[in-house]
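re: ur msg from earlier - yeah i can do the zinc ion complex, just paste it... oh wait u already did. ok heres what im feeding in:
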Amino acid sequence: MKESDFMPQIGYILLLACFALSAHASEHGQAISREQALAKLRAGNERFVSGQPHDWSADAAKREELVKGQEPFACVITCADSRVPPEILFDQSLGDVFVIRLAGNVITQEVTGSVDYAVEHLHVPVVVVLGHSSCGAVGAALSDTPAEGPIGSLIALIKPSIDAAKRKGFSGDDLGPAAISENARHSVDALVQSSRAIDEGIQKGTLTVLSAIYDLSSGRVDWQTQVSAAVVPASVASAAEDTHENSAAGTEVEKVAPKAQTADAKETKETKHSTHSEEYARRH
Ligand SMILES: [Zn+2]
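and the outut:
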């Protein structure tokens, strides 16, 4: 065999090897825990807020490494707003975060499908729905001006959150921020209720789903609702349903009883919503 005939075969073998490595990378299971993933996001945002980001890595060596496969440690669903890029505000590198962006960080079937892929095949331990201050999509939904067509269908997904904020007594200048918070929490609800992969991840204790709000001015991410499986015996699970405590990452945790996740999670989150609304009302 001439060398010129041999080289394409070498290339084919290398391609198969890369595919195998890629498959291995996506099937390896969780590389880091939920707590470690959350801590990385929090620390990255702290670096961003303090103006000292350092984790960016997108050079040729990093790109070559990622050709073999991706192993993101978190999935972030956020708005399409140009001021809210997750990789920058969490100070993370190429390949670190699986990002899904849609105006108003609403949940559609396609978004759920994308999150399912991240959870089921890439084994991300953390899913974050990230809303942001001054969100134009929520602002449009607050407007009385009717919207039709594709934008109208987008706004229709946000309207229930505005109604929820109004039911909690928010009005005037407070209604916008409250609706933004409600909208992020609503998206967490929608994800948990619509995705089998997320449901299983929570039940097995391998996945945490959170909502958070990014402040355009300070750069800070304010963590909100967290849905996690309770690592407690079933006998005390019911007692844990209303328990809030601080995790290692310093985030409030809602313990959700296994086998009753959806209904209990909703109930627990409603309790949390009230707490946040009261805090919000006190601050304003
Ligand atoms: Zn927005």
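cool cool. The chain has a mean pLDDT of 77. ping me if u need the other ligands too
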